[in-house]
Amino acid sequence: MSPRRTALLAGLALVPSLWPGAVAQGAGSADLKALGTAYALYVGAGYLRDTCVKRDPASAAKVNQAYAAWIKAQNLGAFEAQLTQRVGRAALTQLRADMAGSLQALDSALQKLGPASRSCPALATQFSSDTFDVRAQVPNLAAALGTGGAAPTPSASASSRPAGASANVAVYSVAQLSSLMAQTLAPLGKASGQQQDAAGLKKLQSLGTVIAVSGTTQRSRSITQEDDRRAARFDVYCYDMANDADNPPKGQVTVAGRVREFDHVTGITLDSCVVLSAAQAAGLKQSTLAVVDAGWQFKAQPAEKFLVAAGQGLKDSEILGAYIEQSTGIGVGGMVLTTYPVSLFLKDGTVYNDPYWAPGSFNYKLSRQLEPQKWGKWTRQGKDFVIRWGDGKTGTFEVKGESRALPAGTKLNGAFQTISGGGNTALGGDLMVVGGGTYTFRPDGTFSGGRFGGSSGPGVAVSSSRKTGGTYAVSGYGLTLRGQGGEEQRLFFARYDQDLLYIGGSPYTPDR
């Protein structure tokens, strides 16, 4: 058995020992055990999907698709509604609350698989494995549910509307609820995750038994809100939408449901969600709850947005230095590697952690507006720095190397390469992604090189390459590459020793 499956199985040990009130509903002990096992897998899969969608947006589409395929293959579209009818809503609600500690253990198991950028793509492949095969582990599920066969998909009728839904229900935007949660958590300081979750849930439940939420969805159970520079910090999830169990809507949507859960990492979950028609939504009042900055998180922007003409950006005289620290990253096949990312420290007490363009061609003022999460304010602590980042997080930057501005006309000599990647072969999977580039610099001011990339999976392999050459010029923290066709690139450049260069923010080492 692979380590990743062992970890997930350990984390999925959620089978309940007590169902309050279930016996009164007529369910025997054998049925309860079967239903408990199935519900544990169902809740665990949903929780893992929530976590990965939030933590690793790059793999969200893949994880969502795998989860939806799993729901359909396991015939679980109406499972929670059927289980509620079988054991009673009070018993199911209490059981779901009792699982909070086990879900945190499951989260820990997921984190042991590595960073989200590695574990979440791997999780997508696991949904189709034996680990999440509910029907195989609980072959008597239909009998325990009392359905005797396949679960029908509930229809969008008036009876499917959550109890208490009426014109008195307020419609909140995802951003409004995200802001409410951010403001609720702010005073808690270093409170535990369970304390944060409890405080958020209490605040949400104070809004009413049933709430309505408006936002957008991409045919998933996740309802979000965003613009071109930011996204709501906490999304809203509706897994048991009563009128679209296998085909969630796409685009603008308004739903109504009971608040079931708040997770300070993933977001807000509603129970018994119903998608409202335009006429139904129009009949509800709009909330006037304030939207505050803390309710948003800023999205990564394309580097091209911050390119300006040479000399219109930062001046080398404004830069304190380009420093590197030790961190970890993902390599070819998903292997965890030790990395040394670079940050640009300015004399005005600010720091930027994603240099790509030569400073003189970098629109730092626009960057500070559109991607403040990449900027921080530093104070010196010996040879290291303490940084308070734009998203409110504080950390110590332990300096592992420093680069100063190089004199104009500095010459380079040698071949250098960079390599990056992803995939899951390091976890026993079959997906490998590789990318990189090489440059050969000569003392006469000429260079040659190119970029390459590729991926491989079951029965498929893709590769690409692009070669170039021309002249180069080093000055300060910039490297200007002029191609033979007249094209020009002005990239960030730093040299730490003869064995480590940074070009455009990527590390290059000698190609021996």
From TrEMBL:
Keywords: Signal
Span of the signal peptide: 1-24
Organism of this sequence: Deinococcus gobiensis (strain DSM 21396 / JCM 16679 / CGMCC 1.7299 / I-0)
Protein name: Uncharacterized protein
